[in-house]
Known about the structure:
A: alpha/beta; 6-stranded mixed beta sheet; 4-stranded antiparallel beta sheet; B: MetI-like fold; 9 helices
Amino acid sequence: MLTPTGTATAQGFLLEALQIRKTFGQTEVLKGVDLQVKAGELVFLIGPSGSGKSTLLRCCNRLEEPDSGTLRLDGTDLLAKATDINQMRRKIGMVFQSFNLYPHLTVLGNVTLALRQVMKMTRADAEARALENLELVGMVEKAAAYPAQLSGGLQQRVGIARSLALQPMLILMDEPTSALDPELVESVLAVIKALRDRGMTMVIASHEMNFARQAADRVVFLEGGQVVEAGSAEQMFTAAQHERTRQFLRQARH
Amino acid sequence: MESWERFVFTFFNAEVAARYWPQVLEGLWVTIFAGVAVVITGITLGMLLAAARTLGWKALNVPILIFVDVFRALPPLAIILVLFFGLPNVGIVLPSLVVLWIALGAVLAAFSEEVFWAGITSVPPGQWMAARSTGMTFGQTLFMVVMPQAVRLAIPPLTNRTISITKNLALGSAIGVSEILGQANSALSMSSNATPLTMGAFLYVVVFAPLIMASRLLERRYSWGNH
């Protein structure tokens, strides 16, 4: 839940982003956003385009550098100078709207690259780990294919396997299904659902309201770089406190 | 047909050809050796400069851009003459082959830096984000993810550049490098017959025609797009 600064650690949050601010040029995209995620939770970030969802996710692993705020993963201060951000990023998976698979590498190569480069695994170990994770997303038989030979839905499942293989503590997903043809969305949502059932912690920015309602533990509604309202999925969809939240959900459902 | 015989005697003289063939052929090896040296140093240096430019450090980018623009602007012959005839005045005497290698290597480095840079900047930013999000460092991302894609985009324009710059090896004859044209030229003055030049031209075609055909193949292959 959203709690005042200071009481967070005591409640055992896995990810704590507090009072995150980010400005691009003249535009303040994040105006002091709090996001706290417990282990095993699936948190949905919803809100209109330009509300700061993507930027907030990117601030969580410092792909964008927050201008100010507090950022902790499992108690480690991600903004501290002494923190090796590359080692921490390994523990924070990220899945992208446009998949961002490496076009010059096979599916297997996409998944093994960081295992070899960051975790310094041997080729054999990396490939075994990669195949295990491709199995989880149902992509083992495509291990030798190149991304361009795969549909968007299959590419996204590879993207999920790529971040899963690093055995992250949580995965950030930035609109994982919004670039997909409607009939491909389901298979990706099924993979996300399976991850949730295995206890993976996830923060997902998405417009899939039906999925949010059935799968999310918590929903955070962001608009204009601020959290308007946050609560359990049930509470947000049936008894949102703010008129703006109710209005957004009414429109988003169609 | 007096003039026709005269023409054959001047350009296709079998006797002169037989006598000077070994000498002109010697030039072929010098051209190939210098060509390989220019291509390797030029392209390697160009790639390193483009890689250095991705760091976005002004103190690095300004000298790189000055180097690139100056060496793209200067005629290669001017660079060769300045190095060969100018440097001895400040106590640096370089063998003519080394001058040719440095001059053309620098020109190729300048042009290939631009080609690689264009390739790097056309790799989508999502590729950087994806790799960095898995914990890969800037350098790992550059060399394992971005550069392979940039090289792929760079190959067709780079091949053309490389051929046109390597052909300038013939300028070595101006400072006494005994490459194909240099050898043919000295055979010309000794024999007072143009046949050695014909042989030289033939050897240039033998060296460069396969490269040009290869570049056309590569271009066709990569113009199909879709990685």
